[in-house]
Design brief:
alpha/beta, FAD/NAD-bd_sf, seven-stranded mixed β-sheet, D-Amino Acid Oxidase, Chain A, domain 2, 9 helices, globular, Lycopene cyclase, 3 domains, 32% strand, FAD/NAD(P)-binding domain
């Protein structure tokens, strides 16, 4: 078996592994990235301040300065004066990062999966089918284990021609609760994104203590489509699909080295949005020499406290989430809502948010930690 040595080895060639590779290369360090290329279709959404240029301009699918929510008896539309909601082509972004990295003489790319990794004296050892690597620093982006009290945010989305819909959407519908709840001890809603003039993403999303077969979420997305079209449904309508599962709470890294990506808590626990968290972790890495910065939570203590209270309430009774989101979206402006979702809010903003929410479950959550 051939042996190689590198200062930094990164396991996992998804977005977090690729972005960390570029960050270290820009610091003048050498990197070996190990793992198969991530060629999945992936729509990545985030909020961005209007006055800050996007560093992903070449990969923006669409952006909007308003977004909507549909509840059983009303709709709520938010307008962003300071923030926009942006959809990125994750597949395109990952391809571009692979190409940029390949031009660096300090970058080595190994597409084999890792079979084993472990800590050794003065570093780490990583084994693939054909080679053994040693490194001073190891970063691992493979999926973590969810802690016992962590809710799962599971989703399955189908992309269909916009012309299939009875009514063309002009801005995202981030939460649509018009379909009946169908899962026990869980909260389900539909997320609809007008990606382009010609394509629309319909995504069934579930907040639950345990996962369900993805086929059930696909059926829910199809049900929303059939309720909003005048056409008979057949599978040929679906252009492509995407799916995944995100942690809403604590995670447990499963491998040696510094965890990155979801394994390091880059996803905001209350929402699952991860890109802005990953960006914060990488900025901290460039500002200090300690490599553990990329594995520390990127979110403020205020966000952590708010998320903990919210998730404690949701864990006790996931179905109450609809009334929570209804009150939150009604009581906050678009900019304040986006600010909360991106960890750009103050203690005063937190009090304003708390004032909009159902009082009884949140008082119990504050006074009693019964996760």
């Amino acid at each position: 078996m051939t042996s190689f040595q590198s200062t930094n080895v990164i396991v996992g060639a998804g977005l977090s592994g690729l972005m960390l590779s570029e960050c270290l290369i820009n610091r003048g360090e050498e990197v070996a990235l190990i793992g198969p290329s991530d060629t999945r279709v992936q729509t990545i959404c985030t909020w961005r301040r209007k006055d800050e240029p996007s560093q992903y301009a070449d990969h923006v699918i669409n952006s909007w300065d308003q977004w909507q929510f549909s509840f059983g008896d009303h709709e709520q539309t938010h307008f962003g004066n300071c923030f926009i909601y942006e959809a990125l082509d994750g597949q395109s972004l990952k391809k571009a990062l692979e190409l940029r990295l390949a031009r660096s003489s300090s970058f080595a790319r190994i597409v084999e999966p890792v079979e084993h990794s472990r800590q050794i004296d003065n570093g780490f050892e990583i084994t693939t089918k054909s080679a053994r690597y040693t490194a001073a620093n190891l970063f691992d982006s493979r999926p973590p284990e969810f802690a016992s009290n962590t809710l799962a945010q599971q989703f399955f989305g189908i992309v269909v021609p916009t012309k299939c819909l009875r009514e063309k959407l002009t801005h995202p519908k981030l939460m649509d609760f018009t379909l009946p709840q169908r899962f026990d001890n869980a909260l389900a809603f539909t997320y609809i994104l007008p990606l382009t003039d010609d394509t629309t993403l319909i995504e069934a999303t579930l907040f639950a203590r345990s996962q369900v077969p993805y086929e059930q979420l696909r059926d829910m997305a199809v049900e929303w489509l059939t309720a909003n079209t005048d056409r008979d449904f057949n599978d040929d309508i679906i252009l492509y699909d995407e799916s995944g599962c995100l942690p809403m709470g604590d995670v447990i890294p499963r491998f040696a080295g510094n965890p990155i990506g979801l394994a390091s808590g880059s996803a905001r626990p209350c929402s699952g949005y991860a890109l802005s968290g990953l960006e914060k972790q990488l900025r901290r890495l460039t500002q200090q020499n300690g490599y553990s910065a990329v594995s520390n939570t990127p979110y403020s203590k205020l966000s952590a406290w708010m998320d903990n209270i919210f998730l404690r309430v949701l864990n006790r009774d996931p179905r109450i989430g609809e009334s929570i989101f209804s009150a939150m979206t009604h009581g906050l402006s678009g900019d304040r809502f986006a600010g909360f979702m991106t960890d750009n809010f103050t203690g005063i903003d937190a009090l304003r948010l708390i004032a909009t929410l159902p009082k009884s479950p949140f008082i119990r959550a504050v006074l009693k930690n019964d996760n």
